[in-house]
Write a structure and sequence with these properties.
The chain is built from nine helices and twelve strands. The chain has about 300 residues and is an alpha/beta fold. A five-stranded mixed sheet has the order 3-2-1-4-7. Strands 10-9-8-11-12 form a five-stranded mixed sheet, sandwiched between helices. Helix 8 links the parallel strand 11 and strand 12. Helix 1 crosses helix 2 and helix 7 packs across helix 8. It binds zinc ion.
């Protein structure tokens, strides 16, 4: 029988959390990301998770914590989309703040998403694939030989800051022309408005694109081209079997895909093609499910 795990997905706009058994979310909720310290926000989450477990009359074995930045040496590095008080804090301190009295396993959100798809989603039959998450930011995770690729700083395969145009728009990382500065949700909305469009959300712009509006279509085409360039670089280095796309903008994959595929095929070495692009099966729950899977797998190898 599968054991129950706590899962927490910390993001720039919300902190989602759930009781997870395998791929099933038995109970879930979220708080908006508040201008609180990490300890205050996680204490809220911990209280809510304990109440959820009490209502189910169950106990959880461990907690998986998906965080918006690389984790190295037990410390969260570089979480630029979070309020002050997250970057530089240790996973152990997050665990104390949650107060759940179970082991805590933290990893970068895009890797957690990739692990979720690997364990229970579109990557179940794949050993080598790239997971791309498109939303407020752009992140990536590579699963190679059935293992997540971490790299020296926990930031391997962080594709959002792959530079695809030296003269592109400025990026939050301080450089220009990163994929995230061209193809993230906010980047799409900014480009649309800068070209004379109304201030709309990426989803509203997508509706206009599907209705045939030329400006909306061109903004999604530009984003798709940048993503295709990034995928070509990924393909060259890691030779994945497929790319799985998750995150809120995955709903607009129909608009991104044609330009993305053209750009990929134009740039990639033929030996790395074809590279199928598949929609994520777990949607926006992938990081929660991956976090629970990591917690279950890692705690199984840890003496209690
Ligand atoms: Zn950047």
């Amino acid at each position: 029988m599968r054991t129950l795990q706590y899962a927490v997905d910390v993001g720039g706009t919300k902190v989602a959390f759930a009781l997870v058994e395998g791929s099933r979310l038995l109970a879930r909720s979220h708080f908006p990301t508040a201008d609180l310290t990490a300890a205050q926000q996680l204490a809220q989450v911990g209280r809510a998770l304990r109440a959820m477990a009490r209502r189910q009359d169950r106990t959880a074995g461990a907690v998986g914590l998906s965080v918006p930045g690389p984790v190295l040496g037990g410390v969260l590095r570089h979480a630029p989309n979070m309020p002050a008080g997250w970057s530089g804090e240790s996973v152990a301190s997050f665990g104390r703040a949650l107060g759940l009295d179970v082991p805590v396993f933290a990893q970068r959100d895009a890797l957690m998403g990739g692990l979720g798809e690997f364990a229970h989603g579109a990557g179940q039959d794949l050993s080598n694939f790239a997971y791309l998450t498109l939303g407020t930011g752009i992140g990536g995770g590579l699963i190679l030989g059935g293992q997540p690729l971490l790299g020296a700083q926990g930031a391997a395969s962080e594709i959002g800051h792959l530079q695809v145009s030296r003269r592109g728009p400025p990026c939050g990382c301080g450089r220009r022309g990163c994929v995230e500065a061209i193809a993230s949700g906010p980047a799409i909305a900014r480009r649309y408005q800068a070209a004379g469009g109304a201030p709309l959300t990426p989803a509203q712009i997508a509706e206009r694109a599907r209705a045939g509006e030329a400006l909306a279509r061109s903004v999604y085409r530009t984003a798709g081209e940048a993503l295709g360039a990034a995928l070509a670089a990924w393909a060259q280095v890691a030779n994945p079997e497929a790319v799985i796309v998750g995150g809120s903008l995955a709903r607009s994959l129909d608009l991104l895909s044609p330009a993305m595929t053209r750009s990929l095929v134009r740039r990639a070495w033929a030996a790395n093609l074809p590279l199928p692009v598949l929609p994520a099966a777990l949607g926006e729950d992938a990081p929660l499910i991956g976090a629970a899977w990591l917690a279950e797998t890692a705690s199984a190898g840890t003496p209690a």
